[in-house]
Amino acid sequence: MNKPTLDHIGIAVKSLDSARIYEALGLTIDHVETVTTQGVRTAFLSAGDANLELLEPTGADSTVAKFIEKRGEGIHHICFRVDDIESHLSRLKSLGYRLINESPVPGAHGCRVAFLHPAAGNGVLIELSEKS
Ligand code: CO
């Protein structure tokens, strides 16, 4: 099993127009995709080995909409790319960490993703992602 690598930092925004600050820094939007299962429209900006993922809620019932309502816009999650998501999930579960997704769900870029409960990460929402 390879060591996980930082894949992206997810940032909750009211509108993907918020990409402008990162474009002003010289980054460019590489990919825009609506992930219906997560209720978000995402924009990815490559920043070296890792990416920024801007998350705009698609509706009021989206978990990102609820996040913005409660805590305002800002850093929402960090994501590690892993090569065997199931074995990571079963090991974390056996170690007693709370998971939001006990098995992978479809994410952006056709990846299989799973979220750990923020309580497992000292308030940080951690996403694991495996490329298909
Ligand atoms: Co993400």
Shape: globular
Bound molecules: cobalt (II) ion
Class computed from helices, strands and strand pairing: alpha+beta
Widest sheet: strand ordering: 2-3-4-1-5-8-7-6
Beta content: 35-45%
Distance from N terminus to C terminus (CA atoms, Å) equals: 16 Å
The CATH topology is given as 2,3-Dihydroxybiphenyl 1,2-Dioxygenase, domain 1
Tell me what you see in this structure:
There is one protein chain. This protein has 132 residues and is of the alpha+beta class. The protein has one domain: Roll (2,3-Dihydroxybiphenyl 1,2-Dioxygenase, domain 1), CATH 3.10.180. Helices cover 18% and strands 38% of the residues. It has three helices and eight strands, in the order E-H-E-E-E-H-E-H-E-E-E. It has an eight-stranded mixed beta sheet. Strand 2 (29-35) and strand 3 (40-47) form a beta hairpin. The longest helix is centred in the last third of the chain and has 10 residues, at 85-94. It is globular.
Structure characteristics:
132 residues, single chain, alpha+beta, binds cobalt (II) ion, 38% strand, 2,3-Dihydroxybiphenyl 1,2-Dioxygenase, domain 1, 8-stranded mixed beta sheet, 3 helices, globular
Write the layout of secondary structure elements.
Elements: E1 5-12, H1 20-24, E2 29-35, E3 40-47, E4 50-57, H2 63-71, E5 74-81, H3 85-94, E6 105-106, E7 112-115, E8 126-130
Parallel strand pairs: 1-4, 5-8
Antiparallel strand pairs: 1-5, 2-3, 3-4, 6-7, 7-8
The structure holds cobalt (II) ion.
The site of cobalt (II) ion has 6 residues, from strand 1 and strand 5.
